[in-house]
Design the sequence.
């Protein structure tokens, strides 16, 4: 089991509204 | 975070149950400046409108990340304001993670939330007493220092 990160901010906000959940927003450096 | 904290089963479960998790590269031309990202990892907790309520910078051990996230959730409800719900999250930290780095702030915010709810200054004095006895080296004891004068 792993975290299913969403890579689109707008999609994540929409999903948060649909599921009535808070958002965890992780800004990362891939390098 | 990818090597240690996120693969932890308890962390994965907690994040999946409580959040919609979004990952964005810090170099993102729109969202980086919008959220004033200057360093990574930057971990933000937003409400479903996308408004930020909590931010943490830097690495967390798995056993510290969960109480940190609980604190952030509590702050969302504190801000809304839904103080009873906020209290329930702050209490989870003090009960289940009393040794975590987040516990002193949770003690402070739980007491403040209770005071705002019932206007009983005993809640503020209790913050001071609790921090003094359990977390005497915490900066939150300094922040609660004026409350020691409220003893009845």
Sequence:
């Amino acid at each position: 089991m792993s975290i299913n990160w969403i890579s689109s901010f707008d999609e994540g906000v929409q999903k948060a509204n649909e599921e009535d959940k808070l958002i965890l927003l992780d800004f990362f450096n891939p390098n | 975070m990818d090597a240690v904290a996120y693969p932890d089963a308890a962390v994965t479960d907690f994040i999946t149950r409580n959040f919609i998790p979004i990952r964005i590269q810090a170099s993102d031309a729109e969202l980086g400046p919008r959220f004033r990202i200057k360093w990574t990892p930057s971990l933000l907790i937003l409400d479903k409108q996308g408004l930020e309520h909590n931010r943490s910078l830097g690495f967390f051990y798995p056993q510290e990340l969960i109480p940190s996230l609980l604190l952030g959730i509590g702050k969302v409800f504190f801000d809304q304001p839904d103080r009873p719900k906020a209290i329930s999250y702050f209490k989870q930290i003090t009960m289940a993670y009393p040794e975590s780095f987040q516990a002193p702030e949770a003690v402070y915010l739980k007491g403040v939330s209770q005071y705002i709810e019932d206007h009983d200054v005993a809640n503020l004095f209790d913050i001071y007493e609790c921090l003094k006895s359990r977390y005497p080296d915490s900066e939150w004891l300094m922040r609660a220092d004026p409350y020691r004068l409220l003893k009845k």
